TrEMBL record:
Keywords: Isomerase, RNA-binding. PANTHER family: PSEUDOURIDINE SYNTHASE FAMILY PROTEIN-RELATED, RNA-BINDING S4 DOMAIN-CONTAINING PROTEIN. This is Dual-specificity RNA pseudouridine synthase RluF. It holds the Pfam family PseudoU_synth_2. It is an enzyme of class 5 (isomerase). Its EC number is 5.4.99.21. Residues 11-68 form the RNA-binding S4 domain. It catalyses: uridine(35) in tRNA(Tyr) = pseudouridine(35) in tRNA(Tyr); uridine(2604) in 23S rRNA = pseudouridine(2604) in 23S rRNA. The keyword RNA-binding applies.
Length: 250
C-alpha cells in the first residue's frame, strides 16, 4: 500500500530510530512501543509515526527485562466474557489484556508491548457463564498441546450449588459415563462443602462440568476453573492477567 505521506518532507520515526540506535526495524518498533523514544522532548509511542528531518530524536535506555517473541498468559475470566467475540455487544476475554489489568503480582519480568495483544488464541474452552483460568497464547505449540492433547492435562473446577448436596448424590455424580450421547473421559467429583464441589476432568468441551452436575439433579449457581495441568489460578484477581513465566509448564 502506498503511504499517502511518502512524498512529503517527513520520514518514518522507526527509520530514524534504526539509524540512531543502529538496530533492526523490529527493534526500533519495540523501542517506540515501549515509550523510549522522544520527539522534541515528547514521548511518541505510536507505530507508523512520521517526523521531519529537523526534529530532535532522543532514545532512553532500554530497561532490564525479558522480551518474549510469542507470549502465553493466563486470565481470570469474569462471567459473561466470551473466548472469542462473535456477536455485536459481546465482550471477549482478550479485551482484558491491557496494561491496567495486569496483576501487580506478575513476576515474569516481561515488558508489556502492544504486539502482545495481537494474535492471541484461547487454548481450550471455558463456558461464557463460568469464571476462572483461561490460557491465551500466541504460541501455536501451546495451543495445540492444550486443545489436541487435552486428555493429558487435568482441569480442576469449583462448582457452587443452589441447595445442599444430598448424601447419595456424590455416587450419582461419579457414576456418569456418557453425556449427551458422548462418552466422558476420566473424571473425579468430590465434596468440598454442603454447597460446593470439586471437579477434576481430563477433557475440554462446552458445558461438560455443568452437564455432569446437572445430570445428577443438582442446580448449579457458579463454576470456576482454578487449574489447567500444573498451572493454577492462584491469587489472580477476577479480570486480571499475568504472563506465564519461562519455567512454568503445563
Amino acid at each position: 500500500m502506498t503511504d499517502p505521506q511518502a512524498n512529503d518532507d517527513t520520514l518514518r520515526l522507526s527509520k530514524r530510530v534504526t539509524e540512531l540506535a543502529r538496530c533492526s526495524r523490529r527493534e526500533a518498533d519495540e523501542l517506540i512501543e515501549m515509550g523510549l523514544v522522544k520527539v522534541d522532548g515528547v514521548v511518541v509511542d505510536a507505530l507508523g509515526s512520521r517526523v521531519r528531518a529537523d526534529q530532535r530524536i532522543e532514545l532512553a535506555p532500554r530497561p532490564a527485562g525479558v522480551q518474549a517473541d510469542r507470549v502465553t498468559l493466563i486470565v481470570n475470566k469474569p462471567a459473561g466474557y466470551t473466548l472469542s467475540k462473535t456477536r455485536p455487544g459481546e465482550h471477549g476475554v482478550a479485551e482484558l489484556v491491557v496494561a491496567g489489568q495486569r496483576a501487580a503480582s506478575d513476576r515474569s519480568g516481561i515488558l508489556f508491548l502492544k504486539r502482545h495483544q495481537q494474535h492471541l488464541v484461547s487454548a481450550g474452552w471455558l463456558d461464557n457463564d463460568a469464571t476462572g483460568l483461561v490460557v491465551l497464547t500466541q504460541d501455536d505449540g501451546v495451543a495445540n498441546k492444550l486443545i489436541k492433547d487435552a486428555t493429558d492435562f487435568e482441569q480442576e473446577y469449583l462448582v457452587w450449588l443452589a441447595e445442599p448436596l444430598p448424601p447419595e448424590a456424590l455416587a450419582r455424580l461419579n457414576a456418569k459415563r456418557e453425556l449427551e450421547g458422548k462418552r466422558i473421559g476420566p473424571y473425579k467429583i468430590s465434596r468440598q462443602s454442603d454447597l460446593q464441589l470439586r471437579v477434576v476432568v481430563r477433557q475440554n468441551r462446552p458445558r461438560l462440568v455443568r452437564g455432569l452436575v446437572e445430570a445428577a439433579g443438582l442446580n448449579v449457581t457458579a463454576i470456576k476453573r482454578i487449574r489447567v495441568g500444573r498451572i493454577a489460578l492462584g491469587d489472580l484477581a477476577e479480570g486480571q492477567w499475568r504472563y506465564l513465566r519461562e519455567f512454568e509448564r503445563f
